[in-house]
Amino acid sequence: MSILVTGGAGYIGGHTVLQLADAGEKVTVLDNLTTGFQWAVDDRVDFVEGNAGDTEAVTALLQERGIKSILHFAGSIVVPESVENPLKYYHNNTATTRNLIEAAVNAGVKHFIFSSTAAVYGMAGMEPVGEENPLSPESPYAKSKLMSEMMLADVAFAHDIKYGVLRYFNVAGADPQGRSGQSTPLATHLIKVACQTALGQRDKMKIFGTDYETPDGTCIRDYIHVTDLAEAHALLLNYLRDGGESTTMNCGYGRGYSVKEVVGVVKKATGIDFVAEETGRRAGDPAAIVAQADRARSVLGWEPKHDDLREIVDHAFAWEKYLLTRNDRPELG
Ligand SMILES: NC(=O)c1ccc[n+]([C@@H]2O[C@H](COP(=O)([O-])OP(=O)(O)OC[C@H]3O[C@@H](n4cnc5c(N)ncnc54)[C@H](O)[C@@H]3O)[C@@H](O)[C@H]2O)c1
Ligand SMILES: O=c1ccn([C@@H]2O[C@H](COP(=O)(O)OP(=O)(O)O[C@H]3O[C@H](CO)[C@@H](O)[C@H](O)[C@H]3O)[C@@H](O)[C@H]2O)c(=O)[nH]1
Description:
The chain is α/β, with parallel strands linked by helices. The protein contains ten helices and 14 strands. It binds nicotinamide-adenine-dinucleotide and uridine-5'-diphosphate-glucose. It is an enzyme of class 5 (isomerase).
């Protein structure tokens, strides 16, 4: 049965495509290449350039290809940008998802898997957050994602479609076989920025805030290897195909590292002592957010294989070095 992967030319979608193709699935990637790269799409799958929010075109694509499952990664992902330009996020996340769901209903799609975020929990505190924790999305990005979750639940109530929502914690690392990685040069993610700084692509990096109520004063996050996250998608798809009920699940490891700890691991892994300047807080950052992730383990049988910060950093760094060898590498701003 065919699968549509929106945003499959991007970071997390691209890794999930690798796993689906490795498993022999028939996959079509739909991506408008705003932040993704066509070269990053695995040769074993079909690529269609287009907008996931174009209901008419997507309905036709789904019908032509007999697609019964959608994995929806496409979206805009930069939290501070969403504060400055909320309408972009309500458009490309909420409205695009609404239109895609409509296409799914039109074409009789049975399973819809959606990329949500730990940001829906807001300022969670030091205790791990479970799926039933109160939701308190702070940024337009987080709100745009939560609205999409709500639409899915309403549509699944009214139509014959099941959904799976995965709330990702901090995704990092790269394919252990070196086939894929995070390629957007201006990505703001801590581990990528630290690896770019180690490679001299940035003169220095910043540590945003050292006065949080955490053991070393810097923010704590639950960093999850992108390959483990990709596997959770593949398992969730099979769960839904086997008749599983609609569900919402955290994807994290259930333990956190501080910004200083991460920077320390990047320095150790690379053997490079780059400058990490301590500065003020970045707007909107919660002090700590760590997943309670038992549901994915118990319901899907998900068993992470790369729960090791050093391994995550090694893979992220290897990919960053590979990107330096590409001629089409965009310049850092
Ligand atoms: N990276 C993280 O840490 C993280 C954490 C939580 C949730 N997420 C979510 O996971 C998903 C994937 O994130 P990512 O890190 O791979 O980002 P990414 O920017 O690498 O990938 C997004 C992809 O979607 C494509 N795209 C964007 N808008 C589109 C549209 N309207 N139509 C078709 N294609 C479109 C882009 O070209 C890109 O290839 C996003 O929905 C994001 O919100 C990411
Ligand atoms: O150059 C940098 C980059 C980040 N940080 C800090 O590192 C931590 C992690 O930041 P980052 O890697 O940007 O991730 P988050 O802001 O935690 O957000 C990520 O994780 C969320 C889920 O937890 C997702 O929703 C977001 O899309 C994704 O970007 C935060 O405390 C940042 O302040 C720095 O100190 N310096």
